[in-house]
Design goal:
Layout: H1 2-10, H2 12-19, H3 25-36, H4 41-46, H5 49-70, H6 78-84, H7 98-120, H8 125-134
Helix pairs in contact: 1-5, 2-3, 2-5, 3-5, 5-7, 7-8
Amino acid sequence: VQSSCLKKAAAGKFLCSQLLTLIDPQCALLLLRYCHIPTLNYVARCVPPGVFQEASHLHDQLSRNTFAAILGLNSIEESIWQQVSLKIKLGGFGITQLKQISSTAFVSSWCHSLYEIPKRFPAKEGLCVSSIYSSR
């Protein structure tokens, strides 16, 4: 599973390289935000964070390097990257970091599944409840 996640994260290199060929930086930033950043959101909901950690780091690093390159910079300091990662309404660029959301995405998906399984498969309700308590 981990190697599949890494392949999916590495696949973003092509899109990011194409963004750097665009003349208009605003278009490149918008495409980065709307097309590259969400590519691994589904995987973050389905794969445990420990397994997904390396892929999320690769994706975040690719996002950061591409953002810097679009602006004509060699690199971005950590404090500036944290500002960039904020939501737009908070003064950032809305470039979400997977490392910040992957745990929450996975747990919320898992909880939603536990809520849905008994509704769809009433006979399995006890199994869901027992799996919660046995994982403690």
